[in-house]
Automatic annotation (TrEMBL):
GO terms for molecular function: penicillin binding; peptidoglycan glycosyltransferase activity; serine-type D-Ala-D-Ala carboxypeptidase activity. SUPFAM superfamilies: beta-lactamase/transpeptidase-like, Lysozyme-like. This is Carboxypeptidase. Residues 795-821 have a biased composition (Polar residues). Residues 391-667 form the Penicillin-binding protein transpeptidase domain. The lineage of its organism: Bacteria, Bacillati, Bacillota, Bacilli, Bacillales. Residues 735-841 are annotated as: Disordered.
Length: 841
């Protein structure tokens, strides 16, 4: 071996050893690095697992359902189905929008500012997240959240809003999962519909871009927004409570608006930097006066129409609850055991985007509310009595639709709806529906039929007996049914109620008119026809009952809501007419003709309306007054051929009585409402006169007997001509041996056969309109108007509340009790050939 080559060999050997050692070290370092990475990964995975261990793995279907689930604002509309009454009670205002209805300017503003890599990432922006982690670790002054739009939707839909590492990790994992199952457009649409945008001009919390546009700029079409407005809106979701031009009451907030404008300039800068705006567009947006375009302050609907909104909410909740629970009846739904059901239904109604369409005519309703709000129409406030209250309901009796209401004077004073929820004694307003209508229908009396106004003795459970009295403390003997009703005399109504119709039949008849408040104990209320009921009646039900008269005996259930649709426009409830014939057209016409006299006769209890109702004579009206003990309640139930309006006046506590001026309050308010209705809504009053059906004729009878006139009545001129149902025209001549003043008083009884003729409904073929002079019998004039004292003062107490009677009547003289014979018409029946005073065999 060459000794000169040994150093080179040794040198190579050393390098070989060094390489092996280095390789071994690299392997070990690599192995340690892998182990370190795995260990760190394990630690991170363990940490992440610990953070999300309670987070469920959501399925595709669940993610879809939750993302598309929104608490939508429900709205109430007037009867034109276009004009909103307002939004239902919910502090959130949320209205959905499709992406196709969102202009590109809003999308550009939003993405440029909130997530410039929205269309590139898979739900999580790694650069943004790293930047956010660095800012947090270094505690930098400016810290960005790093959340993508997808993460923000995930947080809004599935997670709480607390700022913790746990929530952030869950948010990222959910965002990744959402991006797997949903397209970018669906996620962007969810963002636009779900994110908060601060307060609107009405004080509601705005959710979604459409509600924000309407609530902040009063712009419903997003395409009409200026680029400056779009940038303003796009900047709000970052800090909606800070960037808000309005406070929680809808008042302008200068500080919040200035901060929102600072944020708007940031958005415009980002749009310029990302190429979404040109320099000229950017400068134009900066010059745009955003403040001048802010929506004007608006009162919340529960401040503008509080009574109507609450009543609509209450009735709609009942309707939906009944629809969802068909085993519960309408009478049962208001019972205490169903209170929770109603509350749950009401909450669902408020947050599910329902559209509730009412029957309320906005002009009619506004006029009625203004009349109620005007203190000049009422007595001054009393510290002892409180606020004089008023309630009224106007109904289209052909359909039962409620056109307008007065629910009370002041919502802040008393939130109860006096028109629908209160029950009070009806006074003499009960006489037509509990006595005269059923008596006319069965032929017990007719307008010219005689009823005995003489003393009657009634049994009393406590005193043994009591003697009802009239307002004037006198009895006037025989009088026609028309006169008795016209002057609201008590005893004739009592006689019909007790001895002819009978109490059970009377109350069954009243119930058939929709009155639901008649109680079992009222079966023993001998003076119930005068208004002495155990519970009373509501304005709504009594008005609907009177509406059957101008509607020719047909009852239509009163209703406030015509239809309800869900958020997609599907009809979930629609009112179905509940029409039924209760009595004949002939009876309805006779009753109307009698109630016209209540107003037209100078002695009628409604005579004030001749002057108070400005269209009197041009439009037929009829009605009945009602008064309770010491004027604790006053009523007027009046109608035209097209609408029925019922009015009640009194105080919250019935013991508080109305002032002298308040005695006629119901009539005066009735006239005020009708005057405004005729002026503003003339189309509601298409029919000027009541029509007469077939089967009604005018007949001249003796005013001494109510039957065909005999020799004495014809010679003395004691005759009366009036309308009769043809079925019940008298066929016998009455006995007239003695003058009226000497003749003993006997109760009147119609001459009808034991076996009644079966009723046959006759259609109203003859549509002849009856002029006023034909429909009202001639009555003598009275020159003076006397306010009479309360006619119930001396009535003994009974087991039921004290009945009521009419006031302000004029006692006729003996000569006034007779009616002149009008000229014979083509439909008048006379019997000149009868000359005997005795009936023929």
């Amino acid at each position: 071996m060459n000794p000169k080559r040994r150093p080179s060999s040794q040198k190579r050997s050393r390098w070989r050893i060094f390489g092996r050692v280095l390789l071994i070290n690299i392997k070990w370092f690599s192995f340690a690095g892998v182990l370190g990475v795995l260990f760190a990964g394990g630690l991170i995975s363990g940490y992440v697992a610990a953070l999300v261990h309670d987070e469920p793995v959501r399925s595709r279907q669940l993610i879809y359902e939750k993302v598309n689930e929104n608490a939508l604002t429900s709205f109430v509309f007037f009867n034109d189905q276009v004009t909103p009454v307002g939004r239902m009670r919910m502090e959130e205002d949320r209205q959905l929008v499709d992406l196709k209805d969102v202009p590109q300017s809003i999308v550009d503003a939003l993405i440029s500012t909130e997530d410039s890599q929205f269309y590139e990432h898979r739900g999580v922006d790694l650069k943004g997240t790293a930047r956010a982690v660095k800012q947090k670790l270094l505690n930098e002054n400016r810290q960005t959240g790093g959340s993508t739009l997808t993460q923000q939707v995930a947080r809004r839909v599935f997670l709480s809003l607390d700022k913790t590492d746990s929530r952030k990790v869950k948010e990222m994992l959910l965002a990744l999962r959402m991006e797997r199952f949903m397209g970018k457009d669906k996620i962007l649409t969810a963002y636009l519909n779900k994110m908060p945008f601060g307060n609107g001009s009405a004080g509601y919390n705005l959710y979604g871009i459409k509600s924000a546009s309407l609530g902040i700029f009063n712009v419903s079409d997003l395409h009409k927004l200026h680029i400056a407005q779009a940038a303003y809106l796009a900047g709000l979701p970052q800090l909606p409570s800070v960037y808000s031009a309005f406070d929680g009451k809808g008042n302008f907030d200068e500080e919040g608006f200035n901060k929102a404008m600072e944020r708007q300039r940031v958005v415009l800068g980002r749009m310029l930097a990302t190429g979404k705006l040109t320099l000229s567009e950017y400068n134009e947006a900066l010059q745009f006066d955003v403040k001048a375009t802010l929506a004007p302050h608006r009162e919340k609907s529960y401040n503008t129409f509080p009574y109507l909104m609450l009543e609509t909410e209450r009735e709609a909740a009942q309707l939906l609850a009944l629809q969802q629970n068909p085993d519960i009846t309408a009478a049962e739904i208001s019972k205490p055991e169903h209170a929770e059901l109603l509350q749950n239904t009401r909450e669902e109604l408020q947050r599910s985007g329902y559209r509730i369409y009412t029957t309320i005519n906005k002009k009619i309703y506004n006029n009625m509310r203004q009349i109620a709000a005007n203190p000049q129409n009422f007595s001054p406030y009393s510290k002892k009595k409180g606020l004089e209250q008023i309630a009224a309901i106007m109904i289209d009796h052909k359909t039962g639709a409620i056109l307008g209401m007065i629910e009370g004077r002041d919502f802040n004073t008393e939130q109860m709806n006096y028109a629908t929820q209160m029950t009070r004694q009806p006074g003499s307003a009960m006489k037509p529906i509990a006595a005269y209508l059923p008596a006319l229908e069965k032929g017990y009396t007719q307008p010219a039929g005689l009823i005995d106004d003489s003393q009657i003795i009634l049994k009393d459970g406590r005193k043994g007996y009591h003697i009802p009295k009239n307002y004037n403390r006198r009895y006037e003997g025989l009088m026609t049914a028309r006169e008795a009703l016209n002057r609201s005399i008590n005893i004739p109504a009592l006689r019909l109620f007790l001895y002819e119709v009978k109490i059970p039949n009377a109350w069954n008849f009243v119930r058939s008119l929709g009155i639901t408040t008649i109680q079992p104990q009222d079966e023993h209320a001998q003076t119930g026809v005068l208004g002495g009921l155990s519970k009373g009646v509501s304005v709504e039900e009594l008005t609907a009952a009177y509406g059957t008269i101008p509607n020719m005996g047909v009852y239509n259930a009163p209703h406030l809501i015509s239809k309800i649709t869900d958020a997609n426009g599907k009809i979930v409830y629609e009112f179905k007419p509940q029409t039924k014939r209760v009595y004949s057209q002939q009876t309805a016409f006779l009753m109307t003709d009698m109630l016209k006299t209540v107003i037209s006769d100078p002695r009628g209890t409604g005579k004030r309306l001749q002057n108070a109702f400005k269209s009197y004579g041009a439009i037929d009206i009829a009605g009945k007054t009602g008064t309770t003990q010491n004027f604790g309640d006053v009523w007027f139930m009046g109608y035209t051929p097209d609408v029925t309006l019922g009015v009640w006046a009194g105080y919250r506590q019935q013991v508080n009585t109305l002032s002298q001026e308040g005695h006629s309050r119901a009539q005066s308010v009735w006239a005020l409402i009708m005057n405004e209705a005729v002026k503003d809504q003339p189309e509601l009053f298409k029919n000027k006169h009541f029509i007469r059906p077939e089967g009604v004729v005018r007949v001249t009878v003796s005013s001494l007997t109510g039957k065909l006139p005999g020799r004495y009545s014809r010679q003395s001129g004691q005759l009366v001509t009036d309308w009769f149902n043809q079925k019940y025209v008298p066929t016998e001549v009455g006995r007239e041996q003695l003058p009226r003043s000497a003749r003993p008083v006997v109760p009147s009884k119609p001459d009808i056969k034991e076996k009644e003729v079966p009723e046959v409904e006759v259609p109203a073929i003859d549509q002849e309109k009856i002029p006023p002079e034909e429909t009202d019998p001639t009555v003598p004039d009275a020159d003076t108007e006397i306010d009479m004292p309360d006619e119930n003062k001396d009535l003994p107490s009974t087991a039921t509340p004290q009945p009521s009677v009419e006031n302000e009547q004029v006692t006729p003289s003996e000569s006034q009790s007779q009616s002149e014979t009008p000229k014979t018409k083509s439909d008048e029946v006379v019997y000149p050939e009868i000359i005997s005073d005795q009936p023929k065999n």
